[in-house]
Every structure is written in structure tokens, then in C-alpha cells.
Write a structure and sequence with these properties.
Belongs to the PhzF family. The protein has 280 residues and is an alpha+beta fold. 19% of the residues lie in helices and 40% in strands. The protein contains six helices and 18 strands. The chain has an 18-stranded mixed beta sheet that branches. The longest helix has 13 residues, at 75-87. The chain starts with a strand and ends in a 12-residue tail after the last strand.
């Protein structure tokens, strides 16, 4: 089977967030095999997709696995999958995906950008957990918000971009945190550089100490910063050593995520899934 590694939310190799993409001919193999492939790829996400019969609500079924677990929603691996489908000629125009979080869509524009339609996350103000404050090293925290269950992140607002960039969290301490992960964010120091806010995402409980660019988290960052900056069209810069740009458009209960992607590896997976026993 052909497998690809795509750098998402970037237009150049070795930036953005890498995702593996495996297109299947038919139904998903056993979950254990999918998890083994994701563990072998050892990227923040591996996406698996197979075509659906025509006439339904979606064109492709889509699932995402970290090296440690399946997740409900993933932005950068959806972007990577749409990029593969478009560049291989397997889909044109609007692509509809059926996923655990519902129907998601992705559409490639003439300039090569891909825009995805995701559900907007709710934001619930909560007290700053002492364990998270300790794990982050005790930076001044301005606010903390919990997100919707299909994301499951804690959004932590810090004072400025410099604090976000210099953060060195205790990943072992964060691993014990009950939610999916922690997103730290702050306004851009200089918006003339092409972005309005910055963020970094830490998900050690899911086998990812730091995720370079988390598309799903931007469904929470979009309403968070739209309220503070007074605009519904914004651009976020996420990452530490690797970075990527996510353009967001807040449209009520939906958030549009726009970015670019580039394929960096195109190879063959030799370990085939197990064959079902006769009669199964």
C-alpha cells in the first residue's frame, strides 16, 4: 500500500506539521493494526481513509491515530489527506469526510490553499489548575478556558508572544493531566509580520510532547481571539522549533481553517493488514 508523509500548514518541506496518510481501497482494517501503523510512523497523526459509496453524506471515511491512541478530530492530518487526494487526482472540488466528530469538508483553491470546514469549539472559563501551572513552569496566566469534548484541550492565555516562545514545560507532569492537551496562546508581538496570535500545543498523554501545528485547536483559538481582537478573519502562528500558519474564519458554529501542504515522502507500506478468517 502506498503511504505518504505530508507537511501540513506550510508550503515548504520540514516545516508545519507532518502527517502520514494511508488511502485504503475498502473498509478499515482492525483497530490494532491501524494503531500499529501509527506507532511505526511515530508522527503526531497518521490518517487512514477509504472511499464511501456514492450518494451519501460523505465521500471518504476518515480516522486519525497518534502513536498512542485514536483521536476524535484532527486538522493537520485532514489537510494532509485532502492534499493527497487532490494531488493524486482522486478527488476534485469539495471533499466530504465522515469522521468521529461528524462531517468535515475540505476544498482546494486555484492557488493551492486548502480550506476545511470544522465545528467551532465552545469555550468555558475555568480556574487555572495548579498542576498545569506547575507543569508550565509558573508563567503569569491571564485566563484559562476548557474546550468542547471533541477537542478536549485547555486553552491557557499567557501575557505575550515571548513567554509562549520561551516556555519549557514539564512534559511528564502534563502527561498526568486529564484533558487531551494544553494550548498556550498570546497575541502577536508584531501583527505586521503576517499573524495575529501565537500558540503552542502539548499533548504528552497522547504520545506527543509538542504538536507543531494543531488545526483542531484553532477551532477554539478562532472564537477566543475573534472576541479579543474584534475580527472574524485571523491568522495564527503555531509551533516551537517547527512552525506553521493557520488562517481562520469564524462563521458562527463553524470555523474555516485554511493552509497549505507539501508531500515530502511517497513510499510503500509492506506490512499488510491481517486477512479475515473464512466466513468473517
Amino acid at each position: 500500500m502506498r503511504i505518504r508523509i505530508v507537511d501540513a500548514f506550510t508550503d515548504r518541506p520540514f516545516q508545519g506539521n507532518p502527517a502520514a496518510v494511508l488511502l485504503l481501497d475498502a473498509a478499515f482494517p482492525p483497530d490494532a493494526w491501524l494503531q500499529q501503523v501509527a506507532c511505526e510512523m511515530n508522527l503526531s497523526e497518521t490518517a487512514f481513509a477509504h472511499p464511501l459509496p456514492p450518494g451519501g453524506d460523505a465521500d471518504w471515511a476518515l480516522r486519525w491515530f497518534t502513536p498512542a491512541a485514536e483521536v476524535d478530530m484532527c486538522g493537520h492530518a485532514t489537510l494532509a489527506t485532502a492534499h493527497v487526494l487532490a494531488t493524486c487526482g482522486l478527488a476534485t472540488g469539495l471533499i466530504r469526510f465522515s469522521a468521529r466528530c461528524g462531517i468535515l469538508t475540505a476544498e482546494t483553491a486555484e492557488d493551492g490553499t486548502i480550506t476545511m470546514d470544522f465545528p467551532t469549539s465552545s469555550l468555558t472559563p475555568v480556574p487555572a489548575p495548579a498542576s498545569v501551572d506547575h507543569a508550565l513552569g509558573g508563567p503569569p496566566i491571564l485566563s484559562v478556558h476548557d474546550t468542547a469534548d471533541h477537542i478536549g484541550d485547555l486553552v491557557v492565555e499567557l501575557a505575550d508572544e515571548k513567554t509562549v516562545r520561551e516556555l519549557e514545560p514539564d512534559h511528564a507532569a502534563l502527561r498526568a493531566f486529564a484533558r487531551r492537551g494544553v494550548i498556550v496562546t498570546a497575541p502577536a508581538e508584531d501583527p505586521s509580520l503576517g499573524y495575529d496570535f501565537v500558540s503552542r500545543g502539548f499533548f504528552p498523554a497522547f504520545g506527543i510532547d509538542e504538536d507543531p501545528v494543531t488545526g483542531s485547536a484553532h477551532t477554539a483559538l478562532a472564537p477566543f481571539w475573534a472576541e479579543r481582537l474584534g475580527r472574524t478573519d485571523l491568522t495564527g502562528l503555531q509551533g516551537g522549533a517547527r512552525r506553521g500558519l493557520v488562517r481562520v474564519t469564524l462563521a458562527g458554529d463553524r470555523t474555516l481553517l485554511t493552509g497549505r501542504a507539501v508531500t515530502v515522502v511517497d513510499g510503500e507500506l509492506l506490512a499488510a493488514p491481517p486477512t479475515a478468517a473464512p466466513g468473517q
